[in-house]
Amino acid sequence: MPPQKNAGNRGAKRETGVSLKNQTFIHNFMDDLKKEGNVENVFIGRITKKMGNGRMEVFYMNQGRRYLTNTKIRGSFCGRGKRSVWIDVGSFVAIAGTGLGGSLAFEIVAVLSADQVRDINRYTEIDPRILDITNTDTANIISDVSDDITQGFEFNNEEEVDIDNI
User: Fold this and answer.
1) Hey, what domains does the chain have and what are their CATH numbers?
2) Which of 18, 70, 76 has the alpha carbon at shortest distance from 47?
C-alpha cells in the first residue's frame, strides 16, 4: 500500500483556499489603487462589535463621513474557513457594497493585517481613527459617530400648559 500523501506535518504546511483568496483579493485591490487611485464600493473599516449569526458591526469612512453599519461575513470565512482567516473585534476588513438594500447592503470580502492597511494608506486616505492600532476600545469611535446624530426632541413651546384643565 502506498504511503498517505497528506500525513504528518506536510498536510499542515499547505495554505488553505480561503487564505489564498484573501491574499489574492488584497493584491488585486492594491493594484487597482495604484492604477486608478480609488476603487468604487470597496471601503476599509474596522470591526467594532460581533452581532452573531455571521454579522459584524463595522466602522468605515466614505467621502469624509463616518458610518457604522452591520455587515455580513462572506461565506468562505465561516465554517472551515474561519480557522485560517480570523475575524474578531478590532480587525481591519475590506467591505464591499452588494447592491442590495437593508442589512445585506455590505459584505466583508477580506481581512487585512496592520501592515496591509499601512500599504493601502499610501495610495488612498484612510481615517486615522481606523488606523489607530493601539486603541482597542472602540467606544470612542462609536461615540464620535453618535455625536453626528441629533437625538431627542426639542420643544419650543413657551406657554405653560395646565394639566388639570385638559
Assistant:
1) 13-146 (2.40.50.140)
2) 70
